[in-house]
Description:
CATH class of the largest domain: Alpha Beta
Number of strands: 8
Order of helices and strands: EHEHEHEHEHEEHEHHHHHH
CATH architecture of the largest domain: 3-Layer(aba) Sandwich
CATH topology of the largest domain: Rossmann fold
CATH superfamily of the largest domain: NAD(P)-binding Rossmann-like Domain
Radius of gyration: 21 Å
Strand order of the largest sheet: 3-2-1-4-5-6-7-8
Bound molecules: NADP nicotinamide-adenine-dinucleotide phosphate
Distance between the termini: 36 Å
Strand content: 5-15%
Amino acid sequence: MFENKRIGVIGAGVMGKALINGLLHSGHVQFTQVWASVKSESSQKKLSEAADYPVYTDFSDEIGKTDIFLVCTKPRYVAGVLDLLKDSGKLKPGCLIVSIAAGVTISRMKEHLGPSVALIRAMPNTPCKINEGITVYSPAAGVSTEHKAIAQSIFSSVGQVIELDEVHLDAVTAVSGSGPAYIFLIMESLADGGVRVGLPRDVALQLVSQTVLGSAKMLQLAGKHPAALKDEVTTPAGSTIAALLTMEDGKIRSVLARAVEEATRTARGLGNA
Ligand SMILES: NC(=O)c1ccc[n+]([C@@H]2O[C@H](COP(=O)([O-])OP(=O)(O)OC[C@H]3O[C@@H](n4cnc5c(N)ncnc54)[C@H](OP(=O)(O)O)[C@@H]3O)[C@@H](O)[C@H]2O)c1
């Protein structure tokens, strides 16, 4: 699928690098097929020293040779990047542009690229760095099966992949895009609790991280509702129900659910920044 294809990653920061590494480690793509770009000379120097592929601050010479562009800059830079691609006049017919920027809609991107460019909007998350990510992608109208398969293959090299209508992407951003931060905050808080009752910090963190990992795997494998799995831990008159009621007193459910609602609203506005 990637044979003889050239892939350019515009914005090789946290997510851009994760995608390049996933693609290279998957074996689908050789490092000779990849280039990356960053904004600053300092990032260019740092990444060049570590990478086997070219890293540019000015990638204009690559535009006409590239089949797949992954746009991984912060949302506010996306319009400028797309203008640069379009205005170069060098985009190959049949090339594919995939953007992972939060909040930047397909219709917004089409305003810069024109209607005929194949475009996919996607939302991965940072566990892509260890191939445990999850990505939702939404193709623009008319995107070919081959281009969808390319997106599927890129993101499955770093974790699970779902195709969904674009209408859901801001909600996806709020749940799984930002989700690792919520889980880390919860894990830090649980470890703090362990430290408060006398556990060494490193032991508390190990207990918490393996508990989260094991619980997530149980949810994925058991095919049960999380409430049923919670009930299995909750002995009558025991310590778990005491903790759960304390959490309910703090309105933990509505706090977490409302946080997702707020993040969705914020994500929706990021493309207009
Ligand atoms: N981080 C997440 O958890 C996450 C999850 C899902 C989606 N996303 C989306 O992924 C995108 C990138 O996020 P990130 O966390 O990876 O950001 P990041 O680490 O700050 O990386 C952004 C990269 O873009 C480069 N850049 C900026 N302007 C550029 C331009 N005009 N041309 C080429 N490169 C340019 C920056 O170069 P310099 O290093 O020189 O500044 C940097 O390397 C965002 O749009 C975000 O919405 C992020």
